[in-house]
C-alpha cells in the first residue's frame, strides 16, 4: 500500500535569526518524500529570500486549504503575522509572541491531523523571557505543557541514527543521546532526578525507540550523575540511592540497561558497541559529545508527546542571519527524521 507523503509543519523560528532562511532553503532542494509547509510571516520570508537572492515562490495557504504536493522552488506557508518588522541579527521583544504563535499553529495542526509532524527552527529563549513569558524553558517544555503530556524526553540523534537498529543495518556510527533533565540550572539537577521521574523517562525512551526508530529490543546505556558514577558513594550517593535501584527494577521487567556508568568513559567507541541510546543525566553531560561528533548533522526529537516533533541541533546564529552563510544540514536531518517517524506512524495505524 502506497501511503501519501506526510505533511510537515516547519516553524521558521526566531525572525532575527537564521531560521527563516533555513526554511526557505528547503524549497530549493530536491523535493523530499514529504509535503513541507512553513509556519511564519510570508512578508518576512519574502524579504529574506530577496535579500539572499533565493528564488522561492511563496504560497500562502487559506484556512482549510490542503497542503499541495512538493514542488521545487515553491514553499507553502501557514501565515502568522510578525508583531513588528524584523531585521537580521536584531532581536525584538515584541516578536516573542509571534514565535510562540507559530508553535501553537503547528501544534494545533498536528493535533487536528492537518499535519503529520512538526519541525522547529531555532528560537531565542532570552528574548521570550524578556517579553514576560516567565518560566519559559524551551521548545521541549513548551510542547509538553501545550500537549498535556506528563513527561517528555529530549533526545538528539545523529543522521546515521535514522536507520540504526533496523533489519539490515550494520555498524556502530549512530549516536542517540537522551536527557534525564533538560533546561535546568546545574544546582537544580540532582534534586530533579528522582526514582519516579527516571523510571518514567526510561519507559518513554524504550517505548519510542521501538515505535519510531524500529529498534526491536533497545539497549540503553545510562550515565551516572557524579564523576566516576559516584566512586562507590565517595563522590555522591545518587547512583546508589536513586539510579541503580531504578535500573535494577526495570531490568527485572526485561529492559536492557547498562549502568550507571561514568560519563567520561561511556562515550567511547568500545562502550557504545551495541548501544541504541545513551541516557545522560543533564544537558551538558551528553549533548556536547554528540555535537562534537556531528554538529549540523543531528536533530533533536521530543519523545513522549502525542505528536511528532523534531528540531535542529543548533541555535539562532544571529551573527550569520541574512548573510547567506547558514547551513541547513541539521534542518534537513530533522525533516528526514520527522518524515520517517510519520511514515512509521502511518504504517502502524494501517496495520
Automatic annotation (TrEMBL):
Its cofactor is Zn(2+); Mg(2+); Co(2+). Gene3D superfamilies: Isopropylmalate Dehydrogenase. Binds 1 divalent metal cation per subunit. Can use ions such as Zn(2+), Mg(2+) or Co(2+). Keywords: Cobalt, Cytoplasm, Magnesium, Metal-binding, NAD, NADP, Oxidoreductase, Pyridoxine biosynthesis, Zinc. It catalyses: 4-(phosphooxy)-L-threonine + NAD(+) = 3-amino-2-oxopropyl phosphate + CO2 + NADH. It is an enzyme of class 1 (oxidoreductase). Substrate binds at residues 139-140, 291, 300, 309. Pathway: Cofactor biosynthesis; pyridoxine 5'-phosphate biosynthesis; pyridoxine 5'-phosphate from D-erythrose 4-phosphate: step 4/5. It holds the Pfam family PdxA. A divalent metal cation binds at residues 183, 228, 283. It comes from the Bacteria. The keyword Membrane does not apply. Its main location: cytoplasm. GO terms for molecular function: 4-hydroxythreonine-4-phosphate dehydrogenase activity. Its EC number is 1.1.1.262. The active site is located at the dimer interface. Homodimer. Belongs to the PdxA family. Catalyzes the NAD(P)-dependent oxidation of 4-(phosphooxy)-L-threonine (HTP) into 2-amino-3-oxo-4-(phosphooxy)butyric acid which spontaneously decarboxylates to form 3-amino-2-oxopropyl phosphate (AHAP). This is 4-hydroxythreonine-4-phosphate dehydrogenase. The lineage of its organism: Bacteria, Pseudomonadati, Pseudomonadota, Gammaproteobacteria, Oceanospirillales.
Amino acid at each position: 500500500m502506497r501511503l501519501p507523503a506526510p505533511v510537515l509543519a516547519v516553524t521558521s523560528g526566531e525572525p532575527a535569526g537564521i531560521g527563516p532562511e533555513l526554511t526557505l532553503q528547503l524549497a530549493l532542494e530536491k523535493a523530499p518524500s514529504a509535503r513541507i509547509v512553513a509556519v511564519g510571516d510570508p512578508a518576512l520570508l519574502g524579504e529574506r529570500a530577496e535579500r539572499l537572492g533565493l528564488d522561492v515562490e511563496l504560497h500562502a495557504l487559506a484556512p482549510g486549504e490542503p497542503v499541495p504536493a512538493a514542488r521545487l522552488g515553491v514553499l507553502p506557508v501557514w501565515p502568522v503575522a510578525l508583531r513588528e518588522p524584523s531585521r537580521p541579527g536584531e532581536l525584538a521583544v515584541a516578536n516573542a509572541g509571534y514565535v510562540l504563535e507559530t508553535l501553537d499553529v503547528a501544534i494545533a495542526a498536528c493535533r487536528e491531523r492537518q499535519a503529520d509532524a512538526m519541525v522547529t527552527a531555532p528560537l531565542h529563549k532570552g528574548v521570550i523571557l524578556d517579553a514576560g513569558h516567565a518560566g519559559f524553558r524551551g521548545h521541549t517544555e513548551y510542547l509538553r505543557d501545550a500537549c498535556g503530556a506528563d513527561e517528555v524526553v529530549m533526545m538528539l540523534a545523529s543522521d546515521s541514527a535514522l536507520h540504526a537498529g533496523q533489519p539490515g543495518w550494520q555498524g556502530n556510527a549512530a549516536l542517540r543521546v537522551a536527557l534525564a533533565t533538560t533546561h535546568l540550572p546545574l544546582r537544580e539537577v540532582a534534586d530533579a532526578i528522582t526514582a519516579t521521574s527516571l523510571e518514567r523517562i526510561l519507559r518513554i525512551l524504550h517505548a519510542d525507540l521501538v515505535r519510531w526508530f524500529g529498534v526491536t529490543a533497545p539497549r540503553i546505556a545510562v550515565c551516572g550523575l557524579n564523576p566516576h558514577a559516584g566512586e562507590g558513594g565517595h563522590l555522591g550517593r545518587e547512583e546508589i540511592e536513586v539510579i541503580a535501584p531504578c535500573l535494577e527494577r526495570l531490568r527485572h521487567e526485561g529492559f536492557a540497561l547498562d549502568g550507571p556508568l561514568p560519563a567520561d568513559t561511556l562515550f567511547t567507541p568500545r562502550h557504545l558497541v551495541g548501544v541504541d541510546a545513551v541516557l545522560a543525566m543533564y544537558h551538558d553531560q551528553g549533548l556536547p559529545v554528540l555535537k562534537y561528533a556531528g554538529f549540523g548533522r543531528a536533530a533533536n526529537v521530543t519523545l513522549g508527546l502525542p505528536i511528532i516533533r523534531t528540531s535542529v541541533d543548533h541555535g539562532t546564529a544571529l551573527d550569520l542571519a541574512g548573510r547567506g552563510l547558514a547551513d541547513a544540514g541539521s534542518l534537513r536531518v530533522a525533516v528526514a527524521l520527522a518524515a520517517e517517524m510519520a511514515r512509521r506512524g502511518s504504517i502502524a495505524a494501517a496495520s
